[in-house]
Amino acid sequence: MADDKKKFSLGGIDGAAEEKGSFIKTVWQLVKFLVVSGLVTIIQLVLANVLPLVFDNVHATIPAFLQGVFAPNTIFDASVFTGSINDWLETARTFMNEACTKIDTTALKAAKDTLGEGYSLMKTQLNTYIDINKYVAGFTIENGSITSGVITWGYLLPFFLSNLIANIYGFYQNKKTTFKSDAPWYNFAIYIVLMIALILFSTWFQGWLYGVLLKAPWAWLSNLARTIGGLAAGFIQMVVLFPMEKFVLLKEKKKDGEEAAEEAAE
């Protein structure tokens, strides 16, 4: 009975996979890595929604070397604005006066009936303007594009911190359960540097892919551009991190007798 319980425990499955050879063992490690990645994603999503409550009021702009990576026009879709943002602001003021002079259901319903489709478009434009105004300093918009402006730390910090904190958990969880490693502490420092580089690269790649997909001849592909870009960025991180952790950063600790056997073989 005890043997049956051990067989169905994580350690028992680890042992069974190891007995079947290095290929099955690696496949099982990949399965555990994907499970941990799922937990990392959940933590990241929670933090990404909580941290803006802390950092939304940070309006300091990011340094010049990051501005090329985090370009406002690749992060925010300003295509709902067909002309100059200053002209739109005048229209928005008129709309707000008509729709929100009285904050009650009757006034809002009357505005919807009067403006029709324009009401829905204006709501979308207002939400987009609020986000851009919150996270981009000194911006201008012309013909559906953000032609100038700098992303603030208020936008970047929640993204970086949610990604880093979640992946720090992933690193230690993979060290403990996926690879069972006794890697030295400085490997964690290397991992942090690697993660920062991955975040920068995947963000740049996501923006580049988004721009490419927007020009696709199929409307459905353009509509999914941001989702596809986000999934592609996550896939890049997984493809890089699994081999790096398995073979470099979190190499499995040697069992008793293995080191002596290797030295004897040499």
What do you see in this structure?
The protein is 74% helix and 5% strand. The protein contains 14 helices and 2 strands; from the N terminus they run αααααααααββααααα. The chain has helices at residues 2-7, 10-19, 22-50, 52-55, 64-67, 72-75, 85-100, 105-115, 117-135, 153-178, 186-214, 219-223, 225-249, 258-265, and strands spanning 136-142, 145-151. It has a two-stranded antiparallel ribbon.
Proportion in helices: over 70%
Strand content: 5-15%
How many beta-strand segments? 2
Low-confidence stretches: 260-266
Helix segment tally: 14
The main β sheet shows up as: 2 strands, antiparallel
Task: Tell me the strand order in the biggest sheet.
Answer: 1-2
> Average pLDDT, to the nearest integer?
80
What is the H-and-E element order? HHHHHHHHHEEHHHHH
Gyration radius, in Å: 25 Å
C-alpha end-to-end distance = 43 Å
Structural class: mainly alpha
Q: Which of globular, elongated, flat, extended, rod-shaped describes the shape?
A: elongated
Task: Based on the model shown, name its key terms.
266 residues, mainly alpha, two-stranded antiparallel ribbon, 74% helix, 5% strand, disordered C terminus
Quick synopsis:
The chain has helices at residues 2-7, 10-19, 22-50, 52-55, 64-67, 72-75, 85-100, 105-115, 117-135, 153-178, 186-214, 219-223, 225-249, 258-265, and strands spanning 136-142, 145-151.
